[in-house]
Amino acid sequence: MMKKYLINLFYAFRSPSTCLDEVSRVVMNSNDPYASLQELKSQLSPLYHRTLTIISRVLDGKQDALKLRGIGIWHCLITLSNTSGIELKNYIGQYSELDKGRGMLRDTLKYNVFYIIYLVFIFQIASVAIEVYRVKSLPVFESYLADFGLKMPALTKAVMNDTFMVIFYCVFVFALFFMLVPLFVKKRMRQLQGIPWYLRLTPFYWFVIYNYQKYRFLLYTKIGYKASDSNAIDHALQSIGTLFLPMDEKILLMMAQKNTQFEAELDERLNDLGYILRNQVRRSDMFLGFFFISCVVLMMASFLIAMYLPIFLLPGVVW
């Protein structure tokens, strides 16, 4: 009984987007999506009520009753439908194509938060050690050196200043939050969502975000083309909204659209961009991690020097 309760509790706290993706794949890959949806409604637990309602509204073409947030990758098809003026039902059949395009990015966009947890753990230990030393040991050195008419070094006095320490901790917390920004970027990319302007400013991720937007554009173009949209390229650009596409590249795509191998051309470009994104994400994560660790090492080294400077003054005092 306890095991069953724990399993149900685990499912209750699952990500809504995960549930939606799973049910959407089952429904859209079936021979009769409508019949599959009705069957699932009668068998699944109430936890899936919201998920089933979203899929039901999409299949009925009621995109006006849905918000673009919290509906998984369905938002891509709804956005294309709203932009092109073509009924949503014409795009529904391309869900598997959309899910396939997202699947190509899954390995690329994996992220591991354990390195953040490790850095936070190390920082906490170092912070406790610093606080103990500056509160317990440094005042003793200050009193001892004052007896000989000596003053504490300026760097050490700064470490003993509470205001300075508060500023230091605030800067470190900001830097830690800065390290978490790519996690938010990758989360949006995994759902093929747009990247807000403030996330596009993330250093080391500029080219990643640009190529991701370009990947979305090509994927949208392919979906529109398969949905018989004669202006698939323009509608895809309008749906993305924030992508600068060189005119020469647009001309090449428009010329390729006149050929029978347009879909193969798009697949080739998507594969190339997927490979480029994998390498760029790996390099960006490496540079960002190196930058953060370098800052931490520099700050910790400054504190160690500040704490040991009074000890170097002791031989002169004793002499």
TrEMBL record:
Keywords attached to this entry: Membrane, Transmembrane, Transmembrane helix
TM region(s), chain numbering: 112-133, 164-185, 287-313
Domain of life: Bacteria
Protein known as: Type II secretory pathway component PulF
Species annotation: Ostreibacterium oceani
